[in-house]
Write a structure and sequence with these properties.
This protein is α/β, with parallel strands linked by helices. The protein has a single domain, classed as 3-Layer(aba) Sandwich (Rossmann fold), CATH 3.40.50.720. It is 39% helix and 14% strand. Helix 1 packs across helix 8, helix 3 runs parallel beside helix 4 and helix 4 packs parallel to helix 5. The chain is globular. Residues 291-299 have low confidence and may be disordered.
């Protein structure tokens, strides 16, 4: 039996790039796929390709930043395939802008699709899963940009919000059969092409430097795993896949040491001068090197 046989999965932004790679891959693993994209021709082309290779796919064009459309998208999956078992919140918008030149329109567009669209689709899918009493898997899409990057503050903020939603929803649902995780992918796509002019200055301000980007298909096995029953013990995690590198992304945590005192102006100044100033957290994407790992939540 194929890894995802019989599962019905909605993938947003699947008309091209990484989303299309996800759709093709999980269809080959037996999943029934709802291919969503705002570009009707693109999502129909991908769904047609899947059907032509013997898979099962439904094209569902529309804008996931609309709460009403997000509801109808999940309803189309349930109506056509009889169920919804998984959702990949892949649709995303990128607009560059430093803090001094970011426009309201660009910021609103990113939050609308990347954050609100993710919440709208997840809410609809989770309600359907809980109503049916079935297990399910939500896979959100985060980004290394949430750690901070030049001209990607707005985009990173929209993706940091996605990570925070992932942690919260996983806590809320851990007594149910619905799991929520996120993937932080890396690939050469039309979106990454928009960032090429900024890569040199971005690389100077972080530990992780990319000289080339992998193909979109390299990310698909991770998403397939997160959708499958094989990942049943994984919940509330951000999984990073960057070519040959596979890892978990650290959650925001309180950094040690934690100093205790009755804090006055002078004591705060002394605490920073003597201890905390030298323990500032690194800016930009990097590696958290530590020998301590928290016990994972199996709930």
């Amino acid at each position: 039996m194929a890894m995802l046989e019989g599962k019905a999965v909605v993938i947003t932004g699947a008309g091209s790039g990484i989303g299309a790679a996800y759709a093709r891959h999980i269809a080959r693993l037996g999943a029934m796929v709802v291919v969503n994209d705002i570009d009707r021709d693109a999502c129909e082309a991908v769904s047609g390709e899947i059907a032509g290779q013997g898979g099962s796919a439904l094209a569902a064009s529309g804008d996931i930043s609309s709460w009403a459309f997000a509801e109808s998208l999940v309803a189309q999956c349930v109506g056509h395939f009889g169920r919804v078992d998984g959702l990949v919140n892949n649709a995303g918008v990128l607009r560059h802008g430093r803090v001094t030149d970011m426009t309201e329109a660009d910021f609103t567009a990113m939050l609308g699709v990347n954050t609100i669209g993710t919440a709208a689709c997840a809410g609809a899918a989770i309600r359907a899963m809980l109503a049916a009493g079935t297990a399910g898997s939500i896979v959100n899409v985060a980004s290394g940009s949430q750690a901070g990057d030049i001209a990607l503050g707005g985009y990173g903020a929209s993706k940091a919000a996605v990570a925070a939603l992932t942690y919260s929803w996983a806590l809320e649902l851990r007594e149910t059969g619905v799991r929520v995780n996120a993937v932080s992918p890396l690939a050469e796509t039309a979106m990454s092409d928009l960032n090429k002019d900024y890569m040199e200055i971005q690389s100077k301000n972080r530990d992780v430097v990319y000289t080339s980007l992998p193909r979109p298909e390299t990310n698909a096995p991770v998403v397939a795993f997160l959708l499958s029953d094989a990942s049943a013990g994984l919940n509330g995690q951000v999984v990073r896949i960057a070519g040959r590198e596979l890892s978990l992304v650290t959650h925001p945590m309180i950094a040690e040491p934690v100093l205790e005192d009755n804090w006055t102006d002078s004591k705060v100044a002394s605490a920073f001068a003597e201890t905390l100033m030298d323990r500032q957290q690194a800016l930009g994407l990097g590696y958290a090197r530590t020998n301590h790992y928290a016990q994972s939540d199996k709930g």
